[in-house]
């Protein structure tokens, strides 16, 4: 749902001395970064190069265009991500060295300057980039674009479509669901908040259903694969008694926290001891969401229990709403804060110890 | 020969015929003077050496290199220092000015309070100040608690008013409640103390509660000044009988019969002495700085910190002191001025005394030129900041609350204030609560978290908002291990700068 943007410091120049066209080009670039992604900083040298370019730009324009923008997006939490581990070379260094492939693991869209042609770019890519379109697919997963054509790039078009289309069609492969909708947010977040009062309804056993924790297992496995090291996952849900009470099947048996621990145990990947928190609150708000600390959230229209797969493919269409940074996201964070203060807090110590209640 | 030329112990009688000077006596006295000068010089050298040793010991224990050599990264913390604990964990405010309803405000060793103007940020700091002042003054005179706690204002002018129906016979403010959750030394348990107040036409009512937080045994006392019971008729020889306080105590859920009192020295009744003593001590350890710290005088007067220093967990209580003789205090201040890149320092002036030289005064000097400058002539921002630096540097185990420390300061210096506050928290064991609008300050704090100097839990970023739909809300925006904000920043604050950058094109 968001892209990782990196900018060659060379792209932050105004060759025409700050003409209206050039300034509009920068405005469009800034808006694209804000709306569809995160601005990547590879390391201290990259930050230095960006700041240097901003200084020059400020001299040319007479006012500081980019730095307040970066400060603004950085201050509000989301907006900027730092590569881990940090790179010694800046984006500009990689461009000069003709070694852009090195960036494909951390960048989706690379914005290059148009004044000099980057070496090492294959001729077909160079022709598309500099002569025909202003953007081109460099390698699988890495797109390059000139600053004037960022809003036309495939990456931005794809992100626009994802923000617009709010139904994941039935039959979509489980891996595609994760990779398209959740992974882009998870890989740049240090905290994920899964808020759904019926999150564990699969654990409720009835006379006809023996319980199934595969959704939780899948979520944790997927998150563990893509979240950065030291990231935390918070689960917000109702207690088993409350969920069982509201089940239309009178034979429904409530689940316990121990049952949730058992479900975590089934996850093959999850090894982040102490990084999984559970807040049990019976007064949990009706609306569900998954909020990523990078500043974006996905709100399923139904519960997460609607994410059902058969033979690895989505059984029914899954509707969602995308929540960008803003008032809506704040309200979701407020609901989490309420649940944190009201609910019972458990921390998952280890697969052996399970969830342990906190004072 | 006069007596003035006689050496001590000289018992020889003075001749009544003297017309000349006594060479022998003069020589003896000269030798005595030289001996005393040598001894004084020796003492001064010893004192200087002792002072140097004290400073060295202080540096060995408490200082580390903030300027690593070129090309080298800052070494990680070599010493295992105790992590700071907040002296006050939570502040309770109910119906104080704009903070209508009950609010529980979490605090950390370093708390930054943000929010739009008139939302209630200053009121939160004011609540802490009022509570501590009320405890400090009410501990010896419980009946006059609120009258003395609000010496300049009518209490009911700061309490949120309850809108009454037209036919209600008396006007009524809501009940004002102020309180804290504070940590007990040694055990680390949390205790809770609250004071309540209500003013109405039938007489003021106040209450006090103290006990372990969440514990069943809460000692509660209620005080009611019964105007209705007062006899308005003059009783001749006995004089008029005015309203008297009725005091009742709660114990185990039972309320005692109200007792008439003219004086009460026990604010919290017979509650646990340890809880009371810790709270009273805490109440005397709050240093509050308003947004304006007075017009600068010619000479800087140090912040008046009393001698109460907390338990010496930090090993520094009493080490750096103001005063003419010791220079640790001034050197710590000079060091902080230098690290904040303020181009002024306190320089000693020397006078000769008893054959030696001593420091007679410290004057402010411009480091660039070396010229002495009166405080009133340095930049206004510096004069406003000096008391803050002073308190952060010299207070130990205190609560320091500061309103808008960034006023009159360049953004770069605003950022460095974060280093100063971190120093005060980490090295002095203080709890620092800052009401601010400074983005630079927050960015630097986040950087300090990212670099591992501060832990995320040691910083509370609070956002106080006041909207017509929700009313006043206090949100804690959590920080992650990389200093990132885990919760979104409420809109309409820093976003404004972004709007300025992107706007104006249409």
Question: Helix segment count of chain A?
Answer: 11
Number of β-strand runs of chain A: 17
Could you please say which CATH topology of the largest domain in chain B applies here? Answer: Rossmann fold
Bin the strand percentage of chain B.
15-25%
Q: Give a count of the beta strands of chain B, DSSP E runs of length 2 or more.
A: 17
**Architecture per CATH nomenclature, i.e. the level-2 architecture of the largest domain in chain A:** 2-Layer Sandwich
Overall geometric form of chain B: globular
Q: What distance separates the N and C termini of chain B?
A: 101 Å
Question: How does the overall form of chain A come out from the CA principal axes?
Answer: elongated
Task: Note the gap between the termini of chain A.
Answer: 37 Å
Task: Name the average pLDDT of chain B.
Answer: 78
State the share of residues found in helices of chain A, binned by percent. 25-40%
- Largest sheet of chain B, described in full? 9 strands, antiparallel
Number of domains of chain B: 2
Low-pLDDT sequence parts of chain B: 307-326
Largest chain interface and its two residue counts?
A-B, 32 and 26 residues
Q: Give the topology string of chain B: H per helix, E per strand.
A: HEEEHHEEEEEEEHEHEEHEHEHEEH
- CATH superfamily (homologous) name of the largest domain in chain B: P-loop containing nucleotide triphosphate hydrolases
User: How is the CATH topology of the largest domain in chain A named?
Assistant: Endonuclease, Chain A
Number of distinct helices of chain B = 9
What brief labels describe this structure?
heterodimer, A: 359 residues, alpha/beta, Rossmann fold, Endonuclease, Chain A, 6-stranded mixed sheet, 11 helices, elongated, B: 506 residues, alpha+beta, 2 domains, 9-stranded antiparallel sheet, 9 helices, globular
């Amino acid at each position: 749902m968001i892209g990782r943007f990196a900018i060659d410091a060379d792209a932050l120049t105004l060759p025409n001395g700050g003409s209206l066209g050039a300034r509009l080009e920068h405005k469009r670039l800034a808006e694209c970064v804000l709306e569809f992604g995160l601005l990547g900083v590879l390391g201290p040298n990259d930050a230095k190069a960006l700041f240097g370019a901003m200084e020059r730009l400020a001299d040319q324009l007479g006012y500081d265009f980019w730095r307040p923008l970066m400060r603004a997006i950085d201050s509000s939490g989301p907006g900027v991500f730092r590569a881990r581990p940090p790179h010694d070379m800046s984006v500009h260094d990689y461009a000069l060295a003709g070694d852009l492939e090195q960036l494909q693991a951390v960048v989706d869209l690379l914005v290059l300057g148009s004044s000099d042609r980057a070496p090492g770019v294959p001729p077909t890519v160079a022709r598309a980039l500099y002569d025909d379109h202003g953007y081109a697919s460099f390698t699988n997963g890495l797109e390059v674009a000139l600053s004037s054509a960022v809003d036309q790039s495939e990456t931005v078009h794809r992100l626009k479509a994802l923000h617009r289309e709010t139904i994941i069609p039935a039959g979509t492969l489980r891996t595609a669901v994760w990779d398209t909708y959740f992974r882009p947010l998870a890989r740049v977040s240090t905290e994920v908040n899964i808020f759904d009062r019926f999150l564990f309804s699969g654990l409720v056993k009835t006379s006809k259903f023996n319980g199934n924790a595969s959704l939780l297992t899948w979520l944790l496995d997927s998150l563990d694969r893509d979240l950065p090291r030291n990231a935390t996952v918070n689960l917000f849900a109702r207690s088993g008694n409350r969920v069982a009470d509201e089940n239309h099947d009178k034979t429904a048996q409530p689940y316990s926290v121990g049952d949730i621990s058992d479900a975590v145990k089934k996850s093959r990947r999850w090894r982040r001891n102490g990084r999984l928190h559970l807040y049990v609150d019976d007064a949990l708000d009706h609306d569900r969401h998954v909020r990523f600390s990078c500043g974006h959230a996905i709100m399923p229209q139904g519960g997460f229990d609607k994410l059902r797969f058969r033979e690895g493919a989505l059984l029914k269409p899954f509707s969602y709403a995308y929540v960008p940074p803003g008032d809506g996201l704040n309200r979701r964070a407020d609901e989490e804060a309420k649940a944190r203060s009201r609910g019972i807090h458990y921390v998952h110590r280890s697969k052996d110890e399970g969830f342990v209640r906190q004072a | 020969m006069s007596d003035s030329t006689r050496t001590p112990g000289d018992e020889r009688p003075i001749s009544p015929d003297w017309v000349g000077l006594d060479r022998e006596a003069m020589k003896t006295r000269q030798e005595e003077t030289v001996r005393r000068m040598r001894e004084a010089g020796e003492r001064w050298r010893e004192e200087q050496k002792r002072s140097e040793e004290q400073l060295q010991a202080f540096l060995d224990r408490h200082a580390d290199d903030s300027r690593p050599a070129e090309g080298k990264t800052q070494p990680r913390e070599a010493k295992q220092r105790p992590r700071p604990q907040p002296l006050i964990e939570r502040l309770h405010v109910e119906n104080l000015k704009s903070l209508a309803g009950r609010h529980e405000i979490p605090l950390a060793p370093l708390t930054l309070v943000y929010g739009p103007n008139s939302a209630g940020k200053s009121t939160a700091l004011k609540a802490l100040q009022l509570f501590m002042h009320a405890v400090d003054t009410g501990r010896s005179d419980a009946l006059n608690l609120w009258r003395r706690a609000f010496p300049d204002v009518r209490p009911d002018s700061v309490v949120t008013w309850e809108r009454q129906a037209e036919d209600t016979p008396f006007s009524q403010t809501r009940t004002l409640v102020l309180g804290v959750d504070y940590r007990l030394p040694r055990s680390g348990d949390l205790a809770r103390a609250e004071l309540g107040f209500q003013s109405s036409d039938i007489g003021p009512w106040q209450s006090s509660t103290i006990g372990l937080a969440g514990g069943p045994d809460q000692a509660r006392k209620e005080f009611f000044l019964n105007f209705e019971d007062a006899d308005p008729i003059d009783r001749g020889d006995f004089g008029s009988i005015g309203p008297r306080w009725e005091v009742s105590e709660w114990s185990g859920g039972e309320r005692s019969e109200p007792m008439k009192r003219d004086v009460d020295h026990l604010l919290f009744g017979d509650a646990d002495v340890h809880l009371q003593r810790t709270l009273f001590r805490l109440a005397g350890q709050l240093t509050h700085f308003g947004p304006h710290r007075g017009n600068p005088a010619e000479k800087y007067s140090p912040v008046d910190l009393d001698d109460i220093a907390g338990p010496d967990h930090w090993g520094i209580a009493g080490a750096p002191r103001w005063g003419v003789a010791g220079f640790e205090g001034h050197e710590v201040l000079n060091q902080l001025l230098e690290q904040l890149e303020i181009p002024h320092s306190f320089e000693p002036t020397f006078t000769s005394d008893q054959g030696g030289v001593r420091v007679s005064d410290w004057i402010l000097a411009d480091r660039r030129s070396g010229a002495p400058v009166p405080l009133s002539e340095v930049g206004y921002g510096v004069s406003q900041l000096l008391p803050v630096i002073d308190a952060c540097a010299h207070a130990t185990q205190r609560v320091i609350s500061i309103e808008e420390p960034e006023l009159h300061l360049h953004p770069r210096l605003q950022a460095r204030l974060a280093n100063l506050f971190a120093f005060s928290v980490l090295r002095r064991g203080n709890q620092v609560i800052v009401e601010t609008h400074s983005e630079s300050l927050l960015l630097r704090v986040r950087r300090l978290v990212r670099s591992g100097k501060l832990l995320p839990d040691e910083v509370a970023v609070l956002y106080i908002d006041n909207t017509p739909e929700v009313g006043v809300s206090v949100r804690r925006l959590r920080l992650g291990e990389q200093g990132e904000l885990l919760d979104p920043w409420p809109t309409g604050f820093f976003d404004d700068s972004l709007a300025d950058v992107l706007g104006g094109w249409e």
